[in-house]
């Protein structure tokens, strides 16, 4: 059996992304816009296979063929007949679901490889005896021969992503080192080219001189088309004694499909910003221009508060070992109109509700300012993983001049907290049912209060540069001491500058505390539609969840203080504030809590990162349908089997052809070649 570090456990948590209500409340054109953007995202997400490992596209093609011919239940019958145990078949389902979720055979969080947790010979029997192999014997056998060995190999260099001897990557040919990466970056900088949509391939010429190909992602390759911006850059260069050649056309057939659906989405754009944004993205993916993507991102930032939000392109550079090449991602998220109506009601009631907080009115701002907070429900997130929030674009120059968007992804957050009953740790049996029933609703109340009234409450006492105070020194009394205010912020001082290292977590604790306190208020509970016994359950589960979250957070050594007083923030009393914070935040083995010992238990019972099942959208006439799948590895596989109903086999063909065309770049001379690649 493989080292558990390199397998996904059979009982891995699987949750479905719930976006039903948000989708239901969209208008027909909004649904069409969301549908075509989703199609573009899913197609583009396939590029991640080519950005991960040499074998990932073949593994994807093989698994897709297998499960297209037989669904997980049908294949199960066959697998058991071939002598697999239930556990071994489940391990195969989990592996497949893992490959789909990570878009490759390396974990998107941690970058380590994962392999199927069953004997290779048994998997081979299942594959070669499957319906898919019966229908297309040569193709299936060929795919298995190409990727079977690598699928299972835990040779040390293959265990994680990295450059050269350090690991595996397909952002660079296998013979590239960190020196090559640095040289290439200097070259790109000298030509004012961005690395975001590139890969680097090195070949050594007959004269022994290295020649580097910088390949841009685009639909077009060498076609003589008049697009002056990019055309002038597609040529050979001498740079510091090396040859560089800038080419384009990486992932061309995949990006072609992305562009087709962006064109269709454009017809349903709600604003001219969206239209211009999509036109620029189309330009970017067609010609390989990051400048066009930046222009598109500028329109995107200007498209404030859309009902259907999206972003698409070569975005995050975490998985490039050099850290400058972007992995493809595309997402579509929606305003949940019902939830945002509740949040608006909360904001409208703010001035009244803030009076309920346990500090004097003088500690509140004269007029309530609504914090910048957007929560959306994800419909589609294609790429190697789904974050719980986004803060983009990543282009530093745009962030400086145009700003950025900071969005919390509500239904992803809900998944992160949802746990199956069997895995619900540290709760009494009778609490588990309540917890499962009320976790979602109480979380909505807590998020609304935390974000809007938590971060939105409180006032900083300031003395401006002219010496004037924004509070009445005579009458405002510190309720902690019963005396007048002794400390405040001077001009130029801020919460962050005074409380520095603890400022942001302290502020989060404060917002959580406001949420816990105000969730007891019947008016608040009424806004969210709860009264009577239900309201009491919401309050109880909100508290219970906070306690459990604090316990689980011991994993990170920063237990959450669930109590905080506004006074120390208003007065800028750093010494008092730090003492309070450190008192609550200390992790020691002192009784009665014995946090350090508890932490060991928490670590032992830690749950592996969950897999998330996403829905599909399907066009029926002019209507868009939402197709949902069960929260299991089999459900996740079904969602992928139905993801590309028109062109699944064609896509698998495209992916393996693209991988095969570059296969020579990952052949190490020392390795014996295996299979056809
Ligand atoms: Zn917060």
TrEMBL record:
One of its GO terms (cellular component) is cytoplasm. Zn(2+) binds at residues 450, 455, 508. Its main location: cytoplasm. GO terms for molecular function: aminopeptidase activity; dipeptidyl-peptidase activity; metalloexopeptidase activity; zinc ion binding. Pfam families: Peptidase_M49. Its EC number is 3.4.14.4. GO terms for biological process: proteolysis. The active site is at 451. It is found in: Cytoplasm. The keyword Zinc applies. Signal peptide: none annotated. Keywords: Acetylation, Aminopeptidase, Cytoplasm, Hydrolase, Metal-binding, Metalloprotease, Protease, Zinc. Binds 1 zinc ion per subunit. Its cofactor is Zn(2+). It catalyses: Release of an N-terminal dipeptide from a peptide comprising four or more residues, with broad specificity. Also acts on dipeptidyl 2-naphthylamides. Belongs to the peptidase M49 family. This is Dipeptidyl peptidase 3. It comes from Balaenoptera musculus (Blue whale). The lineage of its organism: Eukaryota, Metazoa, Chordata, Craniata, Vertebrata.
């Amino acid at each position: 059996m493989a080292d558990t570090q390199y397998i996904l456990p059979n009982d891995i948590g699987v949750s479905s992304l719930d976006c039903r209500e948000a989708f239901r409340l969209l208008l027909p054109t909004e649904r069409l816009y969301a549908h075509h953007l989703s199609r573009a995202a899913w197609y583009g997400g396939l590029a991640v296979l080519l950005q991960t490992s040499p074998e990932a596209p073949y593994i994807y093609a093989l698994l897709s063929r297998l499960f297209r011919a037989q669904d997980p239940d049908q294949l199960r019958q066959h697998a058991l007949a071939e002598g697999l145990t239930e556990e071994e078949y489940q391990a195969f389902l989990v592996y497949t679901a893992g490959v789909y979720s990570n878009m490759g055979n390396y974990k998107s969080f941690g970058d380590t490889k994962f392999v199927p947790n069953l004997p290779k010979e048994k998997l081979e029997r299942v594959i070669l005896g499957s319906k898919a192999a019966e229908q297309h014997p040569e193709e299936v056998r060929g795919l298995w021969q190409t990727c079977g060995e690598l699928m299972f190999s835990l040779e040390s260099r293959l265990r994680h992503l990295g450059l050269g001897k350090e690991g595996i990557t397909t952002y660079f040919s296998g013979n590239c080192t960190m020196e090559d990466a640095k040289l290439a970056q200097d070259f790109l900088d000298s030509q004012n080219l961005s690395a975001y949509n590139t890969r680097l391939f090195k070949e050594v010429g007959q004269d022994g001189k290295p020649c580097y190909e910088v390949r841009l992602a685009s639909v077009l390759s060498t076609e003589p088309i008049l697009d002056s911006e990019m055309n002038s850059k597609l040529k050979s260069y001498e740079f510091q004694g090396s040859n560089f050649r800038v080419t384009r056309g990486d992932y061309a057939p995949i990006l072609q499909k992305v562009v087709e659906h962006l064109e269709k989405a454009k017809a349903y754009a709600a604003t001219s910003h969206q239209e211009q944004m999509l036109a620029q993205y189309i330009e970017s993916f067609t010609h390989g221009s990051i400048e066009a993507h930046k222009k598109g991102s500028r329109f995107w930032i200007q498209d404030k508060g859309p009902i259907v939000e999206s972003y698409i392109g070569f975005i995050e550079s975490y998985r490039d070992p050099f850290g400058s090449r972007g992995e493809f991602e595309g997402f579509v998220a929606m305003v949940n109109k019902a939830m945002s109506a509740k949040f608006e009601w909360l904001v409208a009631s703010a001035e009244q509700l803030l009076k309920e907080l346990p500090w004097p009115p003088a500690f509140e701002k004269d007029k309530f300012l609504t914090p910048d907070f957007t929560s959306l429900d994800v419909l589609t997130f294609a790429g190697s993983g789904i974050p719980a929030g986004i803060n983009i674009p990543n282009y530093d120059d745009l962030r400086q001049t145009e700003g950025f968007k900071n969005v919390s992804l509500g239904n992803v957050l809900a998944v992160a907290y949802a746990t199956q009953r069997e895995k619900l740790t540290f709760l009494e049996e009778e609490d588990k049912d309540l917890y499962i029933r009320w976790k979602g609703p109480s979380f909505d109340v807590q998020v609304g209060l935390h974000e809007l009234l938590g971060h939105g409450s409180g006032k900083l006492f300031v003395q401006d540069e002219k010496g004037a105070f924004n509070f009445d020194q005579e009458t405002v009394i510190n309720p902690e001491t019963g005396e007048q205010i002794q400390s405040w912020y001077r001009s130029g001082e801020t919460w962050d500058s005074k409380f520095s290292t603890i400022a942001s977590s302290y502020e989060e604790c404060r917002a959580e505390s406001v949420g816990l306190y105000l969730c007891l208020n019947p008016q608040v509970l009424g806004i969210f539609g709860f009264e009577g016994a239900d309201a009491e359950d919401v309050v109880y589960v909100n508290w219970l969840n906070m306690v459990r979250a604090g316990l689980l957070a011991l994993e990170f050594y920063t237990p959450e203080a669930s109590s905080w007083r506004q006074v120390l923030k208003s007065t800028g009393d750093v010494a008092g504030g730090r003492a309070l914070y450190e008192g609550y935040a200390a992790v020691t083995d002192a009784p009665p809590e014995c946090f350090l010992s508890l932490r060991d238990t928490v670590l032992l019972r830690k749950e592996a990162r969950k897999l998330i099942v996403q829905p599909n959208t399907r066009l029926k006439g002019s209507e868009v349908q939402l197709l949902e799948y069960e929260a299991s590895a089999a459900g996740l596989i079904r969602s992928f089997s139905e993801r590309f109903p028109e062109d699944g086999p064609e896509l698998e063909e495209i992916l393996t052809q693209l991988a095969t065309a570059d296969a020579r770049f990952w052949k190490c001379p020392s390795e014996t070649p295996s299979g056809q690649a």
